[in-house]
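Hi R.,

As promised on Friday, here is the backbone we talked about, encoded as structure tokens. Could you run it through your design pipeline when you get a chance and send me back a sequence?
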């Protein structure tokens, strides 16, 4: 594998890890807000705790779908790597 291609793949992998970590942290934050709101509304604790993984999973699914739609719409006509002179 050429050196430039290895660097490009390493760069893309690092950006992918950061993006995934950001989406997971966002889903956790939304889940905590949902638990806080449900406890503030006097929902039983077991229901709030049972809803946490559901809210986190749905948030993660929605953010991943939006990210996929965004990246497919932006880069649909462009090649993955630009040729260099």
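Update: got your reply. Pasting your designed sequence below so it's all in one thread:
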């Amino acid at each position: 594998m050429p050196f430039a291609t290895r660097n490009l793949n390493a760069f893309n992998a690092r950006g992918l890890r950061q993006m995934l970590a950001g989406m997971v942290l966002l889903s956790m934050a939304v889940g905590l807000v949902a638990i806080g709101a449900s406890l503030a509304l006097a929902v039983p604790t077991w229901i709030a705790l049972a809803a946490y993984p559901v809210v986190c999973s749905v948030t993660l699914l929605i953010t991943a779908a939006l990210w996929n739609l965004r990246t497919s719409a932006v880069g649909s006509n462009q090649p993955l790597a630009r040729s260099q002179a």
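One thing I noticed while checking it: The mean pLDDT is 78.

Thanks again,
M.
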